Amino acid sequence: MSDEWAHLDDELERARVAWLYFIGGQTQQEIAQRMNITRLKVNKIIGQVRDSGSVQVKVSLPLTDCIELAEKVSARYDLVDAVVVPDLDDFIEQKRVIGEAAGTLTNELIEGRDMGIGIGSGRTLSFATRTLRARPKSQSWVVGLTGGVTSGSATNTFEVATAFARALGVECHYLTAPIYCANPESRNALLLNDELTDVLARTEIADIGIVSCGALTQDTSLTQIRVVKDNLDTVLKRGAVGEFMGWFLDARGQAIDHFLNDSLIALPPDKLKLKPISALVSGGIRKIPIIRAVLRAGYVNRLVTNESVARALLQGPR
User: Fold this and answer.
1) Separation CA 107–CA 102 (nearest Å)
2) Residue 267 above 80 pLDDT?
3) Is the full-model pTM beyond 0.70?
4) Minimal CA–CA distance to 122: which of 206, 214, 207?
């Protein structure tokens, strides 16, 4: 974990405890359970905040605005939890901070537990491994939730899932197939392979799903896949606002009617929705339409994003 993120992580924790206690009106025990920390630590943070003079009429700690935004987004979209990080001008640095925050959230969710952990793909998720320090029980495992792409070093689902498994010290399983087949018939032929269908079944039984989403622009690894590139105009004309685990969704979060969605090897969004824990890790202005669509459809129960996206999600109709 970088010293810079460690400091931001500590500040975020202090601000969150302070907001929940002094503004949100929650008890120390409720905060401890929600944040998966000890009540003694909550009490200590509250005492430090009081002594520092940070609490006046309102909590005047750095990142308090992020905490308030997270609470409002959670309430609006019926989420169990949300984490909002500050906006950064640098595109990659923004992804890094969002990803590292997701890693910290993951620590709280899997520490000491026996569980299957489903992982998506993308650069933002690749940064999450930097802050992973939890140790689930040895019987736990990681599974990639989508097939692979032919490019995108360190962001491919195979590489991201491997990095998660290595950081957690557990075994990893892969959907060893392209994310898009040439047509539905070739997909069905691939699924005659028992080992592949076994892994696909594992994506469904995983207890937790940690995923990202993407805008449909020309500069992503997904839109560089030939079959997607050749059909991108049609996908957009049919109302797609982005992709979610490879699925092309409209503004309501529904899969558009297109053969690419019928040729996909990936966990369906409706299956992700059934998981006890599901987190969307994504940010950036270009992704607001697809993030909103995913939240509207209720596919995830947790969100990690940045300030400007959170503010946009609170504007207009849900």
Assistant:
1) 9
2) yes
3) yes
4) 214
